[in-house]
Amino acid sequence: NAGVTQTPKFQVLKTGQSMTLQCAQDMNHEYMSWYRQDPGMGLRLIHYSVGAGITDQGEVPNGYNVSRSTTEDFPLRLLSAAPSQTSVYFCASSWDRAAKNIQYFGAGTRLSVL
Amino acid sequence: KNEVEQSPQNLTAQEGEFITINCSYSVGISALHWLQQHPGGGIVSLFMLSSGKKKHGRLIATINIQEKHSSLHITASHPRDSAVYICAVMRVGSQGNLIFGKGTKLSVKP
Predict the structure, then answer these.
(1) A109: nearest CA in chain B?
(2) For the segment A55-65, what is each residue's pLDDT rounded down to a tens digit?
């Protein structure tokens, strides 16, 4: 049972480049989310999804797009990378938005934008 | 003011010591989570609480809803407990979204 899988683990981009961070879970979880973690700050929610075909913005959505075409996958797209997007990104999932559920986290993607 | 405050920010302990990490929050919540972030970066969920107390091995988590406060205790601490401990709350009425504290960095010396 793989849990939540994130790829890549590390990435270096130049300003203006685009890329997609992949997130997949094999637990049939309805709720998936993307966070960024910056030094001296708590994890901040970028986007989330409460089920296939449904996405919504979190606290810091600017510069990021998401889609949820299947229950398993929740990719995060950077359309035009900026140095301010240098961060560590975590994907997480849980059974259901309404219930009080344990969150399962991926291993993280460390992104540097030069 | 942050909605979730943790104290202390950094904590150094000797192996075997009893450790307490505190979390205070200012919003109504339906649940509170304690997470552990390993030095390698991975995040693991330790506890989810909505009332009372939970225990798992040497870890104990308590919550006082009236006082909007939770504590994470580690008994007989060990160097392998060295990690960042993160408190996160699920606000009442939210769609399952969490609000995170900044974390407490614990270092346990042998």
Answers:
(1) B41
(2) 999 999 999 99
CB distance B48–A101 less than 8 Å? yes
Which residues on B lie below 8 Å from A94 (Cβ)?
96
**Distance from C-alpha of A108 to C-alpha of B104, rounded to nearest angstrom:** 19
pLDDT given at position A40 = 86
Q: Which residues pair with A42 in a beta bridge?
A: none
Chain A residues touching residue B44 (CB < 8 angstroms):
105
Identify which has the larger pLDDT, A102 or A21.
Answer: A21
Q: How far apart are CA B90 and CA B19, in angstroms?
A: 25
What is residue A85's three-state secondary structure?
A: helix
- Whether B42 and A105 lie within 8 Å, measured CB to CB: yes
Please classify residue A86 by burial: count the beta carbons closer than 10 Å to its beta carbon, then call 0-12 exposed, 13-18 middle and 19+ buried. middle
A-chain CB neighbours of B90 within 8 Å are 100
Cβ-defined contact of A31 to B44 (cutoff 8 Å): no
Helix (H), strand (E) counts: chain A: 0, 11
Question: How many residues are present in chain B?
Answer: 110
Q: For residue B90, give both structure tokens.
A: 């699920």
Which stretches of chain B drop beneath a pLDDT of 70? 1, 96
A8-33 per-residue burial string, b: 16 or more CB within 10 A, e: under 16? eeebebeeeeeeebebbbeeebbbbb
Gap between the Cα atoms of B32 and B89, Å rounded: 4
Contact B43/B100 with Cβ under 8 angstroms? no
